[in-house]
Amino acid sequence: MLNMFQQREQTVRWIFAGVLFLVSIGMVITFVPGGLFEGGGNQSDFEAARVDGHTISVQQWQTALQQQIQNSQIPQSLAEQIYGKSILNSLIAHQALVDEAHRQGIRATRKEIADAIYHIAPNQLYPGGKFVGPQAYASFVDQYFHTSVEGFEKEVGDELTVQKLQLLLSKSVQVTDAQVRTEFNRRNETATFDYVVLDPTQIAKTITPTSQQLQTFYNQHLANYMAPEQRQLDVLVASPAQLAAQIQIPDSKVQEYYQQNLGQYKFPERVKVSHILIKPASKAAADMAAAKQKAEMVLKKVQAGGNFAALAKQYSQDPGSADGGGELGWIQRGQTVPQFEQTAFSLKPGQISGLVQTTYGFHIIKVEDHQQAHTEPLSQVHDQIVQQLKQQKSLDQAQTAIDKAGDEDRSMPLSQIAQQLHLQYVQTPLISRNDPVAGIGTDAQFTSAAFGTGLNDVTPVVTLQQGGFAIARVKQIQPPRQQPFTAVQAQVEQDYRAAQSKILAQQQAQQLASLARSKGLKAAAASMHLTVKTSPALTSDASLGNLGGIHPIAATLFKLKPGQVGPAATIGGDNIVYSLDSIALPSDAQFQQQQNDIRSALLSQRQQDAFNTFQAAVTARLQKEGKIKINEKAIARAMGNGPEGA
C-alpha cells in the first residue's frame, strides 16, 4: 500500500495510534473536566499506579481496559481478569520509557510536536495550508481525543519522545551476513520424508469398553458430568430494526441533515492507481542499473498487452500491494512522493506510465480512475441519509423504551410492561449459559447479566451485539447438579474411547519408532500393518496436508541424515513417526533475490526485540528501586472485588 512512499507518514501513524490509545484513556487527573474527585474520596482511591512519582489513574486504566473488552467476545468479569494486569503494565511501561528518555536528555521539541500534529490531521487543522485557529483546534482535540490541548500536546510529545528513544536504540542493532544466510536457509531449505500417522480417532473405533470400565471412568471424572446451572427468564427486547420499519423521515429533515453535514459529501481530487515497483539492491550505480533494466523488461511486457495485475504479482517488490495485483486504491495529493504523484495525476483512466524513478526504485503506474474534487448532490445520497436518520431515531426510541421498562415497578410482570411499551416479550424455558434466547440469540453480555442476577430480580439494561437492548427477570434457578451414569452413559463411552485412543496411539508410535530405528520405517510399519506415506518437499514453516504445520518436528527433521528416524511426535493431535528421505538446499540465485528482504525483516525484528528487552530492563530497575507502586485496593474496588470501605 502507500507505506512504500510514506516513510515519514508511517512514523506519524505510529504516533497517532499511540496518542489515540493514551489520550483517549483519559489524561492525568488535572486534565479531566470537573476533576476525578467530585463527590469526595481520597486521591489514593483514584490512583491505579505511580511510576517514579507520575500518576496512572484508575480512570485511565479502566477506560483502556474497556476498549480491550469491547474488542473481545469474552464476558466482562473474565476479560477483566485476563486483560486487567497487561493493560496496567502497558501504561506503566510507557510512562517508564518517557521518564527514561527524559533522564537521557531525549525530548520532543516544540517544532517536532507541531509537525506531528500537522500530519495527524492536515485537512481538519490546516485546510488550504492555513491553521484553523486556537478555538477550532481546541474543539477538534476535544471532539476526537476528549481532552485539552495541553493534554493532547503532552501525549504527542511523549509518544514522539519514546519513538526517538526507540530510534536511538535501533541504531546499535546489526544483522550479520551469517545470520541472513541462516534465516534464508531456514525459510528455503526443503525436506522430503516418509511418515506414518497414528490417528487416535481411528483407533477409538476399535475400542470396545466393558460396563465396568465405563462406570469406573465415570466415577473418576464426576466433575465432567455435572448438569450446568439453568435459568428460566422473562425477557424484554427493544429492537431498533423493528421500530425503524414504522418510522417516516420527511424530506425537510433529510435536507437539514445534508446541509449540516455537507463536509461528509465533499471529496478532494483523487486517482485510483496500481503500480509495479522494482527496487535496487542498493544505491550503488551497478544495482541501480540492474533494477532499471529489469523494470524496462517488465514495462515491455505491459506495453505488449500483458496483464498488469498478473505482472505485478510476479515482479513487483512492494510487499503491501504486489499480492493484490499492484493495487493501491484511491490516493489524494500529498499522500505519495512528488514524482509518483505528478505522474499519477497526469494520466487518464486506463493509461499506463513509463518508468517513474523515486527514492524507492522504479515504478510502472496504471491509473484505473480519476475523480475531480466534487460534492455529492442530495439526490445521490438521499436514501442513504434516510436510512441513517431512521437508524438513529429507532435507536433512540429503543433506548428510551427499554430505559422506561427498567424503571417500571419491579413487581409488575414484564409481559404487561411489554404491552404498554410495545416491546418484544420472550419467556424462555430453563436454559444454560450456552443456549440461545429467542429474539437475541447467543449474546455474551446478556448471558453474563442474566446469570449474574438474583432470583426474581431484573437485570440492568444490556446493549445487544446484534443491535438493540434487553432486560430480563430471573424466574427460576436450577443449580448445577450431578447427572446419573445412566443419563450420560453415551457421553462417558465417547470420552473413554477418546482418552484410551490417545494412550494407545502414543504407545503404538513409541513401538513403531523403536522398531524403525533397527529395521527402517517401511519394514517396521509393514510388520505392524501400518501405511507409510511420503511427503512433498516442505520447508520448516510448511504444512503436511490436513495434519497442519510441521513445526513440532522441523528442528529435529532438518538435522537428520537420510534414512534416520526421528522421535515419535504429535502434529495436530495425531501421532507421527517419520524418517528423512532427502534435504534440498536453495540456490545462490535465490539467496541473491531474497537477501535484502530477509535482512530487512531480521533487522526490524531484532530492533523490536532489543527495544522490548530495554523496556523490560527499565521497568525492572524502577521496580527494584521501589519507584513503581500499584494500588491493588483501588483496582480491586474498581473491578467490584473490594469492600466498600476498603
Low-pLDDT segments: 1-44, 642-646
What profile does the largest beta sheet have?
4 strands, antiparallel
Helical stretch count? Answer: 23
- How would you write the strand order of the largest sheet? 16-3-18-17
Structural class: alpha+beta
N- and C-termini, Cα separation: 53 Å
Work out the helicity level. 40-55%
Query: Mean pLDDT, nearest integer?
Result: 86
**Residues in β-strands, percent:** 15-25%
- Please state the CA-atom Rg, rounded to the nearest Å: 32 Å
**How many strands appear in the DSSP assignment?**
19
Shape: globular
Question: What do you see in this structure?
Answer:
The chain is α+β, with helices and mostly antiparallel strands. Strands 16-3-18-17 form a 4-stranded antiparallel sheet, sandwiched between helices. A 4-stranded antiparallel sheet has the order 12-5-14-13. Helix 4 packs across helix 7, helix 8 (177-188) packs across helix 22 (588-624) and helix 10 crosses helix 19. The longest helix has 37 residues, at 588-624. The chain is globular, with a radius of gyration of 32 Å. The protein starts with 6 loop residues before the first helix and ends in an 8-residue tail after the last helix. Residues 1-44 and 642-646 have low confidence and may be disordered.
